[in-house]
Specification:
CATH architecture of the largest domain: Orthogonal Bundle
Shape: globular
Bound molecules: carboxymethyl coenzyme *A
Order of helices and strands: EEEEHHHHHHHHHHHHHHHHE
Strand content: under 5%
Oligomer: single chain
CATH topology of the largest domain: Citrate Synthase, domain 1
Radius of gyration: 22 Å
CATH superfamily of the largest domain: Citrate Synthase, domain 1
Number of helices: 16
Distance between the termini: 17 Å
Helix content: 55-70%
Number of domains: 2
Structural class: mainly alpha
Amino acid sequence: MSSNTKEIDLSQYPYMDKGLEGIVAFSSRKSFIDGQKGELYYAGYDIDTLARNSTFEEVCFLLWHERLPNKSELDSLNTTLREERDLPAEVLTYLRTANKASEPMSVLRTAVSMLADSDPESADTSAEATLRKSVRLTAKLPAIIAGFDRSREGKEILAPLKKKSIAYDFLYMLNGEEPGENAERVMDVLLITHAEHGMNASTFTCRSICATMSDLHSAVTGAIGSLKGPLHGGANTAVMNMLLQLDKDTDIIEFVKGKLERKEKIMGFGHRVYKTYDPRAKFLRTMAKDLASEVDMEYLYEWSESIVKVMKEEKNIDPNVDFFSATVYYSMGIKPDLYTTIFAMARVSGWTAHYLEQLAKNRLIRPRLLYLGERDLEYTPVESR
Ligand code: CMC
């Protein structure tokens, strides 16, 4: 019997077991993050400019093609995105029969996987077919999310109106009434700010699946599973669950300090790449303030600001995208357990853009492990153990 560990100089592997922090594994033209300055660009355009001026559909085109569309290209994409919003019958049946207590992210993951069954090009991994499937997936995710939410409430699943933006149709299918201009714009900005973010965990999952030459539906299904975790996209739901534990008598400073003393994470804070204010959080902070006051929920924004202050003083950690987005969603009347599905509805554009990029210069992703176990153990039959 010999143990491997004694012979290994672990200092040769300084990056090991550090969650790949700082490792540059891919080159990309999709997005750029400056974690020190707090800047984010999608294919050359800074997030603030896009959030103020563009639409989610335009951002999808930008991420897929690495340039902004001209008018006729955008019109054509909008038309296809509208036409492709219907769900196949088997997915509608699934949404009607799924366990009402299921997590919406689990239902979304299953339904996206099911979409492959009815997609005529599901197994075609050519760039052309992948782009067409990217458009179809982006068009259909909102109908899945809204459909399950209505079905679990015993309401009829609504067909898309197909007349306006993804944001507009999503809010219609969810609430059963056509949204006003302001609500549509807020949802559109949420989708823009969540569309793409470098080599995050779910995008890494998507690229790893793509690199085996598996199909787009498999890659997006895997990415949804990765996004679901509370250290990634699931943080926005966790933020609201935390805010809902508070009331007007809560001492926020003691609440936060207590959590930190117990070594609990405060959801919606911290980031692997940003060492300063997440630029998306900056944008969403203003939206959260305005919206919370519109619906007489200023207290949510005020509690949030108090938490930001304590976290800065105690840990010097700033909020990330998930912190203020929770208040924005809540002020719009959206249920907390749907927040991560809306993140997925936006990020599908980034995932599919990365799939296309990986496909264009593919090599199997296959890192190594350092084995620390024993070798040459003697095998004893089960009866003798
Ligand atoms: N609350 C309290 N302490 C924190 C937090 C937090 N949210 N985030 C980091 N820290 C502390 C952590 O305890 C550690 O302190 P110490 O060195 O004293 O042990 C230090 O900061 C480094 O933290 P880490 O967990 O090693 O950092 P990481 O780069 O591995 O993790 C993170 C990044 C985002 C997973 C982490 O900050 C976190 O768990 N945040 C809460 C969950 C969250 O909001 N996730 C959403 C991320 S942004 C959107 C997305 O990508 O989906």
